[in-house]
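quick one, two chains, predict together pls
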Amino acid sequence: MSAESKLDQKTWDELREIAARYPEARSGLLPMLHLVQSVEGRVTPEGIEACAEVLGISAAEVNGVATFYTMYKRKPVGDYHVGVCTNTLCAVMGGDLIFERLKDHLDVGNDETTEDGKVTLEHIECNAACDYAPVMMVNWEFMDNQTPESAVRVVDDLRAGNEVHSTRGPRLCTWREAERVLAGFPDDRADEGPGAGPASLVGLRIARENGWTAGAEGEKK
Amino acid sequence: MTDTLTPVLTDNWDAERSWTLASYEDRGGYASLDKAFAMAPDDVIGAVKESGLRGRGGAGFPTGMKWGFIPQDNPRPKYLVVNADESEPGTCKDIPLMMASPHTLVEGVIVSSYAIRANTAFIYVRGEVLHVIRRLQRAVQEAYLAGHLGKNIHGSGYDLDLIVHAGAGAYICGEETALLEGLEGRRGQPRLRPPFPAVAGLYASPTVINNVESIASVPSIIVNGAEWFAAMGTEKSNGFGIFSLSGHVANPGQYEAPLGITLRELIDLAGGMREGHELKFWTPGGSSTPLLTPEHLDVPLDFESVGAAGSMLGTRALQLFDETTCVVRAVLRWTEFYKHESCGKCTPCREGTWWLTQTLARLEKGQGSEADLDLLLDQCDNILGRSFCALGDGATSPISSSIQHFRDEYLAHLTHGGCPFDPAASTAFPSLSDTAAGATA
């Protein structure tokens, strides 16, 4: 059976649209695989075949790329991908305890999904928010300054279908919706959430209090 | 005399709806475009050279010089690629910049592309930062609609297309040639150099790859002048940079200051270490830069001084750990990270990071012997300078520096029969963790 029959026409059109954004089509492969995940809930054999066909490369070449990058999943991912940073700084600040508590609370291991299909738990590497440690990501949105208790509340709310907001961003969408944005199809929600969290502004606030500037506008010091 | 903190890139982060074009333009945003377009491209390169701006992604290579390496007689298209794959442990400056003020980066991309005569530019942003990607996508869209991108920008005759490209999870893609592989739709493994990207980069064409903060600094140099920039910082490390404090400090966060500020000054600004505790060890520029100790508190944080102290300025990712932290546990965790992120291309890194992890894990459990410390250093010696790219080199930094500064603490694990530290005491919520600590004791 050809791959064409498995994915709908819209997805095929969008895969071609992604490839056409670039001077050379193969540059579209990473976002194309994000799109496959948004439609299929993981990187499927059909999705790999489709990418290969659009780009005129072999399925083995696409497979080689899909297995290299950690955001691409071969097993179905839940509605919410919960990543707990356990790189050194977050681990020391409490990430290890948060991850242990969530494993216990959700009764899953690393990279496993709860029975209700809602939450996939994974320990992740540094996500560039160390000034908000310990950090948890839900569908790659920041959940800053977590404790084991706050992390449990977040996953309980997600499983109960309650609305949850990033501590420094918008209302959380599903993992598939997030993957679609990563494929380069904006969801028009850039205006949600603040410009910066409190830790991002701490130095600026001190500078303002002291009247410190870089001497712009001709006031060179 | 320069002020202690010098907000330039962070200056609009507290503005109402700072990420929007309207907010950015209200504060004079995009003013550098017409000024740059009135200059010859080579003069823009000259201004950046004269400013002394050095790469803010860790290596500190002079930005203007990098641009000057682009062979303008090469008939192939030129490309600018922004490295927004911020993943070095401890590094957290580019992500808040793009979240709060994506237009600062977009403006920098336009001026920089004009200088190197690129008509297509890319922002390669790590995929794990959804809202940052939303803000970048929106900023690029707004910039097109306002005529800052596209054809005949501001009537200058200059054309530029800018593509936001989301990665998919790979620390190695912060390495510039691995990033190009990722951008070409391949596994992110570094390329052999030469040829350097300036000669044969993206699609084998002349390519400049710069860090977010480097590119974002360019508009301020064009508007305020190279002299203004060069007046800040130290003799060979000009200008300002964002210093990111994290860990056991009272007020972690972003502090934008002239290069050459010391950690002592930064900790003072940050309200000191957390109450009742003192600094034990720190990284000046991410986990790949050798650990320093309190004896280095007065080292000027510029490229030369941190190098002379035996480490590297890196990305100014100041991760601070107090006396409750076990350095062996910290180093083991970083080593597991390098093992996980090793791309597998070269043997010293692919195999070496596994060996390092095994040896360290044994020591951390209080097993093995003192001879394992020499074994670790020997393993480091077989990786450092022998691996294909800097990932392998970086993996050895925490190990060799921690053995240098904290040899006794490794030995204490052997005499104690395991880790002598209580991990709950080092968390941000030590009082909450009493029960958890009791359960694991």
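Residues 435-441 of chain B have pLDDT under 50 and may be disordered.
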